[in-house]
Amino acid sequence: MTVHPGDTGLLAPGWSDSAAASATGDDAFLRALLDAEAALTRAQAAAGLAPTEAATTVTRAADAGAFDVRSLAERARTGGNPVIPLVADLTEAVGDTYGPYVHRGATSQDIMDTAMMLVAARTLDPVVADLGRTEQALARLAAEHRDTAMPGRTLTQHAVPTTFGLKAAGWRSLVLDARDRVRAVRESLPAQLGGAAGTLAAFGAYGAGDAAGLPEIYARELGLRAPDLPWHTLRTPIGDLAGCLAFAAGALGKLAVDVLTLSRTEIAEVAEGSGGGSSAMPHKSNPVRSTLIASAARRAPQLAATLYGSMAAEDERPAGAWHAEWEPLRDLLRLVGGAARDAAELAEGLLVRPEAMRAHLDLTHGLIVSERLSAELAPVLGRARAKELLTRLASSGQPLARAPELADVDLDPTHYTGSAGALTDRALERR
């Protein structure tokens, strides 16, 4: 059997063939590790700690296509991380003259953490773009259906009328919240450079003198933020990623589960523009995108919990806590990357069926506006008698329009959507 060195996503249709898939694969991590190593040598050259030729040679040698990712994975077991065998291979590729400048002064966690930040940055950029596509599509739906009345549902039952415009505006608000959080975290992702125990001592030992400015040069080489301190056991960047990714998954999950409910055969108020088929039932058009997004939303909190748990990292380098972050962080990036892609396609293709919404408003023969009737009858009959009358009429099963007590009362549910239109307008002012 031929074994592919990377994860193909066979069991993960939610993120396979997405930008997140290519940005988080083993080859992408290898590229990020090599980018981190090459940038370190360039930073030291810029600080006068290494020859310019060393930076040029290391950068040229740091070509991901020249390294065997499977071999690195197998040899990572010896030292517990892939940086150790990679440094050996990169040093050999650079050659005797400039090989000593590879990884000089750094520790494995410097390179691994920095590579994680590079992978996160390269994954979050398309996530932000897809969240932008989603909110734009939802804004169009909200504006188009500002006054399209539909049943509001609480605890699975009809409550009072609302509008589809307000519902779409609510989805969009969550997506914008997710976008803002992801964007803020993306802009804050820092490089990592501290040396063996976070003191930068080795850089000084190699002739740097005061090496405190080296992390800023290093971060600039990578397009990352300069860290205030080495964060080997100060895991704020990981916690921030966990939070924004879990929130994004949940925000998109709200959109997905609402579409799943509203697209049920017996409701059919919305439908995915192009649903998925069934292996056994030719008539089906399943809401596949919503299903995959909902799946991501259910997995994300547990992955984030592992990352939060790893913040209790002992000493100046933890045994196990740091290592426990790698896979759940990659999984979170993949899940949210795939969910953001699917959400954009879902929102852009969503079919809305106002006629079904209108028909459902009439299912309870006027009872959906019982709140309004209570308010209107209370001054006439008294609050207690008004409630007793409506409860009796509701239990009788007859349409409220036939009740003589309600002969002059407006029972049209489309006339009882409150401030839904104004709330939608206010929500659409947000950019």
Please give a structural write-up.
- There is one protein chain.
- The chain has 431 residues and is mostly helical.
- It has a two-stranded antiparallel sheet with strand order 1-2. A two-stranded antiparallel ribbon has the order 3-4.
- The N terminus is likely disordered.
- 59% of the residues lie in helices and 4% in strands.
- The two termini are 52 Å apart.
- Strand 1 and strand 2 form a beta hairpin.
In short:
This protein is mostly helical. The protein contains 16 helices and four strands.
What structural category arises from helix and sheet content? Answer: mainly alpha
Number of helices: 16
Low-pLDDT windows of residues? 1-5, 278-282
Biggest pleated-sheet summary = 2 strands, antiparallel
Main-sheet strand order equals 1-2
Task: Tell me the helix content.
Answer: 55-70%
SS elements, strand count: 4
Distance between the termini: 52 Å
How large, in whole angstroms, is the Cα Rg?
29 Å
Q: What order do the SSEs take from the amino end to the carboxyl end, as H and E?
A: HHHHHHEEHHHHEHHEHHHH
Shape: elongated
Average pLDDT score: 92
